[in-house]
Amino acid sequence: MSKQSSVQAPSAVVMVRPHHFTINTETAIDNAFQATSGSEDDYSREAYDEITGAAETLRSHGVAVHLFEDHGNNTPDSVFPNNWFSTHAGGHVAIYPMKAESRRRERRTDIIEFLKRRYRVQSIIDYSGLELDGLFLEGTGAMVLDHLDRVAYAVRSDRTDPIALERFATHFNFEPMVFDATDERGRQVYHTNVLMCVGTDVALLGSEMITNESRRAEIHERLSSSGRKVIELSSDQITKFAGNALELQGNGNRILALSTTAAEALTADQREAIESVVKLVALHIPTVERAGGSVRCTLAGIHLTPRPLS
User: Fold this and answer.
1) Residues 6+ apart with CB under 8 A from 60
2) For residue 29, pLDDT beyond 50
3) So which domain of life are we looking at (predicted)?
4) Which of 141, 169, 244, 248 would staple 176 via disulfide (CB 3.0–4.6 Å)?
């Protein structure tokens, strides 16, 4: 297991702890991973406790967690901050256009101001104005970024517009790799980060859901040629969020954060292959997962240089 730090694995994350967690009916139309109903009374306390526990677990492994509170009652998906902003080496921050109006309220100036105080931020590129043109790109949900090979993998969907993706790729120096993916019932995959995870030495990929065979082979080759072990995930494992993971830099070793649901879906051989290069850390967030996202969605990785502490 490698102890060397990697640009692919941030050592800090932003998380948002919900106080009024509900199932967002506005986003259920195109999110097949999401529960169909649920009230605040049913889930609010459980979701609050799950994020609290997840943050504590990550901190115990040496990850710096910047935990923000969401006291609003009209931001049901606030627990998923990775969709509205991302950070990048060199001091750059991107703010994204969101499809659902309820999700646009998640953008917070206090989080951006915090990042500017604690880290060296040189530029902020705000794409949110594209919402008025019906162009959406929901952050590192819509894209899975290979920071080493400079590739932005992106499933084509209403939440990933090719024009917005091209603008991001040009600004941030990524090669866009767009593809189509569907589940077993032929429904379009809504976010790329439920389908795949790219780490430093390993990648998790639900390639059987990629509809074009040549594109499937191209993506597999691109990942493996960069020296990564490619762990193939079944459609059933994808529905259990096995692809929704994020590599982080912990104390000494890199870790792969995923949910207990996802970890239990892995086979013994898959676990052995992954743990030969990175430590698996499972976080228990079953209530949060009812909203259609898992551990990766709750973590906005910080790829910025910290300022000296005064």
Assistant:
1) none
2) no
3) Bacteria
4) 169
